[in-house]
Amino acid sequence: MTIILRLIAWGFAAAVAYATLGPATQRPHSNLGQNGEHAFAFVLLGLAFGLAYARAPGRTAVLVIVYTGLVEVLQFLAPGRHARLSDFVVDALAACAGLVGARAIDWTIGRLRRSAA
User: Fold this and answer.
1) What is the dihedral of CA 72, 85, 45, 17, to 10 degrees?
2) Could you read off the pLDDT of 45-56 as tens digits, one per residue?
3) Rounded to whole angstroms, how far apart are CA atoms 106 and 80?
4) In this structure, what are the phi and psi dihedrals at residue 83, rounded to the nearest 5 degrees?
5) Which one of 38, 52, 61, 81 is CB 3.0 to 4.6 Å from 6, fit for a cystine?
6) How far apart are CA 48 and CA 17, in angstroms?
7) What is the DSSP string of 6-60?
8) Listed residue (64, 40, 41, 39) closest to 51, CA to CA
9) What pLDDT does 26 receive?
């Protein structure tokens, strides 16, 4: 199961990178607005990585936050894209919220397993 979660997490990271660095016309749009779209994507990214790498939460948090910053900085090289500190803050906080959600899910599953045993 862990390998499947890891494949999903890295696939999602690739999708976020494409949506962030690719042509704006091919990026998904919703009624959430720019910050809402960023937050939604990075909450899911944090959740995916938090579940995939539950045994190393500290390293996972560092990885996700560094990835968030890297994707934002790489926008300087992408034509028609622009990096903003406010986007990084929204993305990093949303990713951390996803990581917290993953920890809560992991904790809940652990308690259910212990009570069933």
Assistant:
1) -20
2) 999 999 999 999
3) 40
4) -95, 140
5) 52
6) 15
7) HHHHHHHHHHHHHHHHS-GGGS---TTHHHHHHHHHHHHHHHHHHHHTTT-HHHH
8) 64
9) 67
Whole-number Å distance between alpha carbons of 13 and 18: 9
Q: Considering the entire predicted model, what is its pTM?
A: 0.87
| 89 token code pair | 């803050």
Using CA atoms of 108, 113, 115, 116 in order, give the dihedral in degrees to the nearest 10.
Answer: 140
Which of 111, 112, 93 is closest to 101 using CA atoms?
Answer: 93
Query: Is residue 75 classed as helix, strand or coil in its secondary structure?
Result: coil
Domain ranges of the chain: 2-21+34-116
Q: Which 8-state DSSP code applies to residue 24?
A: G
Question: How many Å apart are CA 98 and CA 67, to the nearest integer?
Answer: 14
Q: Is the pLDDT of residue 31 over 90?
A: no
